[in-house]
Amino acid sequence: MSEKTWRKRALAAGVGVSALTLVLAACSAPGGGDNEESAPEVVDTQIILAETNETTSFNPATPQSNLDINGKLWYATHETFAYINDQMEVVPNESFGTMEKVSDDPLTVTYTLNENAQWSDGTPVTTDDLLLGWASGSGYYDDATLDDEGTVTGGTQYFTIAGSTSGLSDTEVPEVSEDKKSLTLVYDVPYVDWNLQWLFDQDANPLPFHVVAEKAGVTSEEFMEALTSTPRGNPDAPVEPNATIKAVADVWNTGFDVTSLPDDESLYLSNGPFIVDSWEPTQSMTLKINENYKGDRDPAYSNLVFRFVGDSQAQVTALQNGEVDIINPQAGGDTLQLLESIDGIEILTGPQLSYDHVDLSHRGEWADPAVREAFMKIIPRQQIVDTVVKPINPDASVLNSQTFVTSQGAPYEKTVETNGSDAYAEVDVEGAKELLAGRTPTARILYNINNPNRVAAFEAIQATATEAGFKVEDIGREDWSAQLSSDIYDVSIFGWISPGVGNEDIPQIFASDGGSNFTGVSIPEVDELAAQIQQMTDPADVEEARIKVDQLLFEDFYGLPIFQSPGVEAHTDRISGVTFMANQTGPIWNFWEWTAEETAE
To answer: What are phi and psi of 42, to 5 degrees?
Structure first.
């Protein structure tokens, strides 16, 4: 789906905390790790999955690469200590390694790698890889000062990440074992999401250190020496950047960004079940079995193909014509009706942990709260819901929270009572004109021109904004996601989608220094809550904190949520094992459990 994704993030405490509580003991369970069961016999056939976006990077954790397709590719080609199932539970993956909480005071967690874990070039996965992940995800060495535009004005920012450094930033340099198979993190403060480190495609994901090091011109010994000898960064007292860490960070930040399959195979090494085999730009990417994979998630088919099909109706047509096996479209209009007319497929539906929203810049002319409030008054949210969502879900309603979604029930209803969203229940062009007082601000609106839902939202907003006096400039484009960190727009229309566990969306998206704070919003009380929420162990406290953040965002005229996205998946009857997944992973969450009938010659 054409969504931006949250790194080290979750959409809501009600989902995240409950799932986390259910599996803490499981993640600390000892034993196992070897692939004792025989791998399934691999059938020489392929499964083709339609995807809205095209791959842009083999490192999904940077701001410019924070797309769902990059995360899905990473998920199919990489392993880590756990994964999230369709019940939003964190499931241990002991064939990669184990994580054990060995102390609560101070919080201490030991990660032990399975001896069979290795990269596709035969290099073992070691704590060098985990240390690279820790350095990138913690921001430990950063001593940069940023201005309101997010530009570094002093000091050094080493790794640029899409998410938040919270959690890992409260640890010291990890201790590692002599055999480089065990790493221990000691936290300075309690951290409720400790079992989500190195999970899925987060900022601390284990890229192959030996590749990064070679391209940076450093050795493992030099990197470890730099990590242990360089003090924690202090923006009030910046120092000369450490050349070794800087060289490694520069490669990590941009060295894995791509537009086609590179000749250098080290850029797309795998430690997971699949590895990239070929890529036809704008068309498809084919993955093949990683022959050096020794883990437990063995697919029973030979190839997984991502076919890039941006338009929802085109995905439906491709499924009907047998050109793809599975689709997970950005459903809208008559998507469901079209699917129901096709024989030989199974349709899976449910509410997604995602929402579409309109965000407003806090810079330049839009730093004036009156301009932002005026624009919020003219967003025709009900019209957009009626056009985009109701054909799929007749009971759909406008979303009135930035921190909860409708399907969460009681917490959502509670926040809506107090957050101030009722001021935008209806379009108020006259109220907007009064706030503008004759001014005609320019509104440069960024959105994905290949997503029909976003096009429909833009067209509806354009009409009412123009009526209110805004000078609307259409800057919709194909590379919209790469522009979110830029200053080319004043208004953005896109969606956030979450993994369904954890509570790090607040620091990532809404904190002043959040890696995905694209608007320039800066609210001191939100920053305080963003820092505190990761240390809250009582779900009731987390809920109240999220409600307060929601209220503060409406008071700041941050922007408006539009709707919780309806989820639609469909697959041909030759595929078995696919289940509905509400989070950003989509149907691929259990790709190793799929089976496929061989296609007729």
So the answer is: -85, 125
Q: Given this model, what pLDDT does residue 497 score? A: 79
Specify the DSSP class assigned to residue 535.
T
Among residues 328, 342, 350, the alpha carbon closest in space to that of 573 is found at 342
Q: Specify the pairing of strand 182-186 against strand 442-446.
A: unpaired
Gap between the Cα atoms of 275 and 591, Å rounded:
14
* Contact call for residues 276 and 287 (beta carbons, < 8 A): yes
CA–CA separation, 205 and 185 (whole Å): 15
Strand, coil or helix: 186: strand
What residue has token string 């996965």?
A: 125
Reply yes or no: is the peptide bond before residue 369 cis, omega within 30 of 0: no
The whole-angstrom separation of Cα 163 and Cα 584 is 15
Where do the DSSP E strands lie in 433-558?
442-446, 471-474, 491-497
Residues 349 and 240: their CA atoms lie apart, in Å, by: 54
203: confidence class by pLDDT, cuts 50, 70, 90: low
At 202, the pLDDT band (50, 70, 90 cuts) reads low
Distance CA 141, CA 247 (A): 13
- 115-36-74 Cα angle (round to 5): 60
Burial class (CB in 10 A: 0-12, 13-18, 19+), 89: middle
Ordered alpha helix ranges (H), 196-258: 209-216, 220-229, 243-254
Give me the mean pLDDT over the 141-145 stretch.
93
- Please name which of 82, 102, 92, 83 lies closest in space to residue 185, comparing C-alpha atoms: 102
Give the per-residue pLDDT at 11: 28
> Which DSSP category does 428 fall into?
-
Q: How far apart are CA 137 and CA 131, in angstroms?
A: 10
For residue 201, pLDDT beyond 60: no
Strand partners, 84: 90
Those residues whose C-beta lies under 8 Å from the C-beta of residue 382, and which sit 6 or more positions away, are 398, 426
Spatial separation of the C-alpha atoms in residues 139 and 125, rounded to whole Å = 23
In contact, 79 and 93? CB cutoff 8 Å: yes
Tell me the pTM: 0.78
